[in-house]
Amino acid sequence: MDLFHPPYNSPHTLSGRSTDETGSVTTGELFIWSSARSEWVSCPPDEITWLDRRLLSDNEDLTLHRAPRCAGFRYVQHRWELFSRDTTYRVYLAPHGGGSLPRAELVQRAARHVLPAAPARYEAQPVPLEAGAWLVSIGAWVLPFRLDLPASPPWPPDALDGDQQPLTGDGTVQAARRDDPPDAVAHVRSYFERNATARMAMAYYYQQYILGLPAPHPVPMMDVVIALDLTGEGTVSDYKKLLQSFIWKERGHARDLADFLLSHALLTPADLDEARRIAADNERSGVCEQARQRLRYRPKGT
Asked: What CATH number is given for 29-148 in this structure?
C-alpha cells in the first residue's frame, strides 16, 4: 500500500458536521486517506473503522492482525477515539505537519500518544482524538487521517457531568476526568522534559500500568531506587508528591496519579523501554550492587 501525503483541504469531504444513527449531531467527522481512491474517506460514527491488515497493507503484511484483534477508530460519548486490541504492535499517534509522508520510524519518534501492545483479552486505554491532521503508525505502516470539528460543540459543555461515567463502545467504564486543571498536562510534560531522571523513575515505578497488565501494582520504591541509582529511599515518593502538586495543587491524589500520567501520554512504552535499558546497564556495570550496598549500610543521620 503506497501511501503519500494527501491534500488536507479536500472540498468534496469538508462538510463540518455529521449525524449518528440516532440523528444526533456528532462532534466532527473523521476521515482516513485512501491511496487506492486517492481521496479522503469518511469514517461512519455508528461503526468501528478497523486499522487492520487489509486497510494498512492491502493484506500484504501477514504480521498485522485482522479485526477485532487490531487497533481502530470509534465514536463514543460524543467524541472520536483511537483504541487498540493489537497484541503484537504498539500504536503510535503523531501530528502531521504537512509535506511528504514520513517513515514509520519518524512517526514513532514524534508520537504524542503511544498505545501499548494489549495483553490477551484486554484493551489499551483509548486516546481521545483532537482536531487536525494526524498520522497513525502500526508496525512498518503509516496511515494519514484527519478530524474536522464543527465551529461550536453541538451539546451542552456539562452534558457528561453527573454521576454516570461514560462507556466505551464495548461497554467498558471509562473514568471521567472533570477535576484535572487545564494547564496540568503542559506543566508535567515540561517538568519531564527538564528532568529525565524523574520521568524514568515514574516509568519504571508504573511499568505494570504502562504494559496494561491486569490488576497492576507499582514496583516497590526501593527497587526503583536501586535499578536507576537514585539518591535515596524517598526519591520516588518525593517525585509523586511533586507531580501531585503540579496537577492538583495539593497532595492526596496518589491513586489517581498513574491514571493521569498514562491517559495524557505523559508516560509511554518508549519511556519504559529507556528506563529498563538504564536499569539493565546499571545491573551489568555493577551500579545496582553499589546502590544496594550504599542503601543497606548508609550510616543513620546522614
From this structure: 2.60.200.20
